[in-house]
Amino acid sequence: NAGVTQTPKFRVLKTGQSMTLLCAQDMNHEYMYWYRQDPGMGLRLIHYSVGEGTTAKGEVPDGYNVSRLKKQNFLLGLESAAPSQTSVYFCAIGRGSSQFFGPGTRLTVL
Amino acid sequence: RKEVEQDPGPFNVPEGATVAFNCTYSNSASQSFFWYRQDCRKEPKLLMSVYSSGNEDGRFTAQLNRASQYISLLIRDSKLSDSATYLCVVTATGNTPLVFGKGTRLSVIA
Fold it and tell me: Which residues on chain A are in Cβ contact (under 8 Å) with B100?
């Protein structure tokens, strides 16, 4: 997966629980992204970062927080999980034709 | 109006057939265009970039029509392994996030 890893691969949460998804890269890219993918909805951008210490909101940021304390890691946090956050979460790095995706995290919120 | 629109399909075609997908985009400031491929339960992967002059990669041909704001992907001599979802992707500049269409599903049948 071109040096992009996501942890965990699968997770089941109960409503109200919190968790953090980790995206790690070894390609030294400045840009990192978090997307969610739901049936019939396509990929939607949650948050992104253009460099260490920076973050920005995407299309669907509500209910999520992110941090980019180190260049190689981009964390996505769910403070109080809701069933509507059941989805597949993809991390991506790079820009334009050099954008690569991680393998995804399948999250189910009961 | 959605920023990037695609016919979701599915397109069911026999092996060896030629199939074409179209995609329309609404942002006239869009500068970069791509086709991504996504296999079932996998991450999206770049298939090819789309240039104003059109470009070809083996059995795949991509074209851009800026005046009408649409992008096309032509697959010749379809193989079973071409079965996947094809995502149309645009971005305004190299520094702005990619915007994904919902994808067109292709099934190539023996």
Answer: 35, 42-44
